[in-house]
Amino acid sequence: MTGQARQRSADSATAQGGHASLKCRLGRSDLRAVPEVRRALRELLAQWGKPGRSEVAELLTSEIVTNALVHTEYDAVLTATVEPERLRVEVRDYTNRRPRARVPHADDGTRTNGRGLMLVQSLADAWGIRPYGSGKVVWFELDSGPA
């Protein structure tokens, strides 16, 4: 991994009794971390054996990581936990400002940004935002059922 995302160490991708986890520190505004996080998540999810769900997990992870890197002025921390029946991904940042889902309008034309939380809302089995210290955590869960 390049940039701040490389701080993910072998110790941070662990497997213990039926679940595995991944933890990455993401550097402020380092959008190169997004494909790196997707790759690390893909490796983690290979043992989950839910290909359709894994693709959705990568997409949703990209969205919440990108939001944290673009809309805050600090680092962020990603934690992903895989259990036999579910995946939980959390991105913690150090800004209290809560993200807002935007409803696209017809006059947006070809504009593609601003729709990430709508994807999370529509594709995740559960999701939310909770305060955490001097910031917040945006999280989602996917059950292991069909995509």
From TrEMBL:
Domain Histidine kinase/HSP90-like ATPase positions: 29-140
Biased composition (Polar residues): 1-15
Keyword field contains Repeat: no
Region called Disordered, residue ranges: 1-21
CDD domains named in the record: HATPase_RsbW-like
UniProt cross-references to InterPro entries, sorted A to Z: Anti-sigma-factor_SerPK, HATPase_C_sf, HATPase_dom
Domain of life (superkingdom): Bacteria
Gene Ontology molecular function terms on file: ATP binding
Pfam families cross-referenced by the UniProt entry: HATPase_c_2
Sorted UniProt keywords: ATP-binding, Kinase, Nucleotide-binding, Serine/threonine-protein kinase, Transferase
SUPFAM superfamilies given in the database record: ATPase domain of HSP90 chaperone/DNA topoisomerase II/histidine kinase (SSF55874)
Name of this protein: ATP-binding protein
